[in-house]
Write a structure and sequence with these properties.
three-stranded antiparallel sheet; mainly beta
C-alpha cells in the first residue's frame, strides 16, 4: 500500500475579446513528497532508495457561441 501526499497549486485566466468568443487558460503544478523504494526480488536482489516527482498540467480551451 502506498501513502503519498502533496500540494496542488493552480491558476487560470479568461480572455473574452467579444460576446461570442473566449479563451480559457489554466496551469496546475503538483508538489509531491519524496517516496521511498524498497523492493525485493528473488532473481534480481533488492532495490532501496527514494524518488521525487512532480506534475505540470496546462489546459487551453476555446469557446465560441453562435
Amino acid at each position: 500500500m502506498m501513502n503519498s501526499s502533496g500540494t496542488l497549486v493552480g491558476i487560470g485566466a479568461i480572455y473574452r475579446p467579444s460576446q461570442s468568443f473566449s479563451l480559457d487558460l489554466a496551469y496546475s503544478h503538483v508538489f509531491a513528497e519524496d517516496s521511498p523504494i524498497n523492493q525485493s526480488s528473488t532473481t534480481t536482489g533488492t532495490v532501496r532508495g527514494e524518488f521525487e516527482s512532480s506534475v505540470d498540467v496546462v489546459g487551453l480551451q476555446l469557446n465560441w457561441q453562435f
